[in-house]
Write a structure and sequence with these properties.
The complex is a heterodimer. Chain A is α+β, with helices and mostly antiparallel strands. In chain A, 45% of the residues lie in helices and 22% in strands. The termini of chain A are far apart. Chain B has a domain at 79-229: Nuclear Transport Factor 2, Chain: A (Roll). Chain B has helices spanning 15-47, 79-95, 102-109, 140-159; strands at residues 54-59, 64-68, 164-166, 172-180, 183-194, 198-209, 220-229. In chain B, a hairpin with a 2-residue loop joins strand 4 and strand 5 (183-194). The chains are: A alpha+beta, B alpha+beta.
């Protein structure tokens, strides 16, 4: 009888220790989940104090994200693997992350192959959005004017880059551009050195080029 | 008392109840402590707000977004990262070195016996003042490309009395993707100044590894170098 009582007391003690461990784990987990994580931006044009998402405003965020998208869409570095990575359906490709399915397939089929050829031949291209990004009065498309500068001859310091200007019309899926609501996922993405532009709800549903 | 027949007869008949009530009392006290601790800790943690900012650098004109200032991202510099940066920086300096002294230029641009000359010293930049500055850090194909396509231009520049020097203080070496023990791709920015002209350059440099041929740099060498004038 005494042995049985001793056994039960031991059992109860083990259960109690387990309960305490669970409680501590819950408290620890709770403390991690409730952090508030504001997002600040530092402007490159001038020295400025960091600003919150609300201070920057959705319009400016939209313009930055569009500039990012157009850059990802057209830029070339003299490394064919870079284009190959951008053609993959994964987090390495910001075109994939920021495009709808139809737009990405179209980019992979019609835009990326030429860029890959240029990259293999040593070309470099930079992208700049100029003029204001305007919303069309008749439809949901945004007008984006861009400038491409392409260097075709590597190691030739006399080469002047070829400049092309074009216009593209973008249809966006969402106009709020909020940060994704799963803070832990966002945090992990950023800490794994994921591209910060990917944390916003931004997706291009259609691209029409002039 | 029926000693010695009833051997288990307790000396203090109330002892068992006293011991039991003490045990129960201790457990109730422990439970009470846990409840009080939980009641204080959980609401406190729920109301507790830790500011955990992510500062994002946005270079809007070139579409570059970068996370800055996080202390919890692993930033320890690995040996292959550090050595590759060094190789890339020194190579870029040697590539853009055109001196007014042709002997220094010829030494920098020369092709040497890789095992006899390159293996016996640590490469440094010092504006191409070293023998075989380019060859010792370049892959064979890249060196031949330099010799046939770039060297005639550099020689013409030197013949005109012009000089080029990549200012080490302006040199920025950044990875494109991530460096691995087998090599990586790097972006180099810098400012070249000369006697009559000055310009900014950007170069994309591919680093590969061959331990047998390039022991002086732990095997790292430049397999591709493509530079553009900005």
């Amino acid at each position: 009888m005494k042995k049985l009582a001793g056994f039960f007391i031991g059992l109860i003690t083990m259960v109690a220790i387990f309960a305490v461990i669970c409680l501590v784990a819950i408290v620890y987990d709770t403390s991690d989940k409730i952090n508030v994580r504001p997002y600040f931006f530092r402007l490159s044009q001038s020295i400025s104090t960091p600003r919150s998402f609300a201070q920057v405003g959705p319009r400016r965020i939209r313009d930055w994200l569009i500039q990012k998208y157009v850059t990802e869409y057209f830029y070339i570095i003299p490394n064919a693997q870079n284009i190959a990575d951008r053609m993959e359906h994964n987090g390495k490709s910001m075109v994939y992350m920021m495009s709808g399915d139809k737009v990405f397939k179209d980019w992979v089929k019609n835009v990326a192959p030429d860029m890959k050829d240029l990259a293999e031949n040593g070309a470099r291209r930079t992208v700049k959005v100029f003029d204001e990004i305007l919303t069309s009065e008749t439809n949901d498309y945004l007008r984006v004017d861009y400038e491409l500068k392409t260097w075709y001859k590597p190691n030739d310091m006399t080469e002047t880059p070829t400049t092309e200007r074009g216009t593209m019309y973008l249809k966006l899926a969402d106009t709020n551009f909020q940060v994704a609501s799963d803070f832990m996922a966002v945090r992990n993405w950023l800490l794994r050195r994921g591209d910060p532009a990917a944390i916003f709800s931004f997706q291009v549903q259609d691209v029409v080029k002039d | 008392m029926d000693y010695p027949e009833d051997f288990n007869t307790s000396a203090f008949p109330a002892g068992r109840r006293v011991a039991l009530s003490r045990t129960v009392g201790i457990w109730i006290a422990v439970s009470l402590f846990l409840i009080v601790f939980g009641c204080i800790a959980i609401p406190w943690l729920i109301k507790n707000r830790t500011i955990d900012p992510f500062v994002i650098y946005v270079d809007a004109p070139v579409g570059e977004w970068r996370l800055v200032g996080r202390s919890d991202i692993k930033r320890s510099l690995t040996y292959y990262d550090a050595v590759q940066r060094s190789v890339v920086g020194i190579f870029a300096e040697n590539w853009f070195a055109v001196n007014s002294d042709m002997d220094i230029n010829d030494a920098n641009w020369a092709q040497c016996n890789r095992t006899q000359v390159c293996d016996t010293r640590i490469p440094t930049s010092s504006a191409g003042a070293q023998e075989c500055g380019i060859y010792c850090l370049a892959g064979e194909e890249l060196y031949q490309n330099f010799k046939t396509k770039v060297l005639p231009i550099h020689q013409a520049i030197a013949d005109l009395g012009e000089t080029w020097s990549l200012n080490a203080k302006t040199l920025m070496v950044m990875p494109v993707g991530s460096a691995t023990p087998a090599g990586g791709v790097w972006k180099v920015r810098g400012h070249v100044s000369g006697r009559t002209e000055a310009f900014d350059v950007i170069a994309y440099v591919t680093v590969a590894r061959n331990l047998e041929k390039y022991p002086q740099t732990f095997g790292f060498y430049v397999s591709d170098f493509k530079a553009y004038r900005e």
